[in-house]
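Let us work through a complete example step by step.
Step 1: write down the sequence.
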Amino acid sequence: MTKVSDEQSRGQRFSGKKLVLGIVIVITLIGILSWGAVVYATDEIRISVDGKELRHETLKGTVEEALTEAGIEVKPHDQVTPGLKSEIKDGMLVVVERAFPVQLVADGDTTTIYTTTTNVRGVLKKASLSLGELDRVSPELDAEVEPGCEIRVTRVKEEVITEEYDIPAKTERKPDSTLNKGQQKVVREGSPGEGVRQVKVVYEDGKEVSRKTIKDQVVRSPVNRVIAYGTISTISRGGDVIRYRKVIQARATAYGPSAGKYTATGHRVARGVVAVDPRVIPLGSRLYIDGYGYGRALDVGGAIKGNTVDLFFPSDAECYRWGVRYVKVYILQ
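Step 2: predict the structure and record it as tokens.
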């Protein structure tokens, strides 16, 4: 009885060991399978290239490796976000921005800039190009850029300079009744003045493009030169130069002693006495009449109107010889 019980006890212990061993094996297999599932699980990422998005499953560890695996070439100037060395994470978005060339003209040089930015401001920032307050950019800073376009930067500089300058003397001409026509004389010599002005000068790319006077001051006024010119006309008669101020074409008649001994102005009649219309020839004027000679306006007459003169002759015979003529009457100076 005792022997049978011992055998049964040993059998039960053996069966328990097998059960424990089986459980351990099962647990081990589950762990191995679970580890393999973890090791070989793929990550799904989204890749955006030039605005077009695609999905890609990968086992790669970095963005650079995943892009290469997806057949996407990244050129030296392209922008990748996050960076190429970033670790792959399931569900992440990788953005690839393609760089394109633009021409930057500035400071005398033309440079090709590869950029992913879409406006002028971004291109200048990428080129590390700073702008002065007055500098001009074409196109404007917020304008969009396209591949191959040209961006031109014009350097603008302003400065204010002080200039001294001469103010030229002018020449004044004044009539002089003591000089014959055609004659002149210097009454006063002139001298230049002096001025000081402030000028704003504008330069573009080192070249002057404009200047504007912003302040002007006369330090010394100029003295004008004065020249007198003659107003007296002259004629030559019988070797004499006769100076006159006016000449008229007149109808000339003659009268003699029978008209009386005294003129209307109280002068005694004599050769050279001329009767005139005072509205045309002022009384007292010295005259020269072609064909008659010198005379003086000392008489008037009722028939003497307008451009008419009546010449006194000492004899009636001379009066008849004169008759009526049309002559030039010079009113002398």
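Step 3: interpret the result. The chain has four domains: 43-97, 100-154, 160-228, 238-332.
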